[in-house]
Amino acid sequence: MAPLALLAAALSTLEAGAFMAAAPGRSRVTVAAADMSCDCAVIGAGPAGSVIAWLLAERGGLEVALVDPNLDKPWPNNYGVWESEFDALHAMMPELKLKDCVDHTWPVTDCFFETDERRTTLDSPYCRVHRGRLQETLRTRSDAVGVRRIQAKVRGDAASWCANIVDGIRHDAAGSTLEFDDGRTLRATSVVDCTGFESSLTSRQGTGTGPPPTFQVAYGIYGLVEEASLAPYDADAMLLFDYRDDHLPVKERDASPSFMYAMPLDLDEATGLRTVSRGVIRERHVATSMA
């Protein structure tokens, strides 16, 4: 889960001293024409942006503004992570009590890389992170350390990328000024772009001749299935990769590789409802995604 993998990177950046409120020779910059000012503006209130904002305020002592046009919108992604990695994050940021945000752990992880039924089982536990619980935890902690929440969209068009300057942001030697669609402005000494691969704040075109950036797109569903129909999947294992494509027409097998992952869950874990038993068949709730 890429967003949560960024949390450790954010902590390392902070500990390296990349953002210091009282660095020698550096003073806070406030432009009179701006409606608001802060040390650091974090654009994008997903998992990465939310934890970076909290870290900079809690451990860096900075005045931080978290900017997003949909601050209170529930996160749509289904987040999973290796248990060992999440344990490490928990140890790095114990204040967040991240382990309390785990709602299911599978003891092993299954993969299918061949076109036949051979299964590769990894002896590595995998966790599902409760997105609502994580979102609420980060919001509560950020509010407690004074992170300013600004519900606004930076003015600009992704098509207007040009040397990191778009309609809604201007950089100078002392910082940056952001202009929002509603006419307000924000002055920040530093800006952290956490808006994802479709960002309109950052140029990706540059002057080089390298390939364009790559990214992964996932399509997810929740489904009620009978346990017998999970075969050949193990209901007690996280299915991380299923690359088998022998069910596809031959002409589609040479397309860009794609895989499915699945998280088998009991009904009470996924929806709060009691698990339903019908004879020897138990219904399962499965979160699947095709990437």
Automatic annotation (TrEMBL):
Instruction: Give the source's domain of life in one word.
Output: Eukaryota
* Cleaved signal peptide residues: 1-16
UniProt keywords, alphabetically: Signal
Q: Which Pfam families match?
A: Lycopene_cycl (PF05834)
Question: Is Signal among the key words of this record?
Answer: yes
- InterPro entries the UniProt entry points to: FAD/NAD-bd_sf (IPR036188)
Put simply, this protein is called: Lycopene beta-cyclase
Upper lineage is: Eukaryota, Sar, Stramenopiles, Ochrophyta, Pelagophyceae
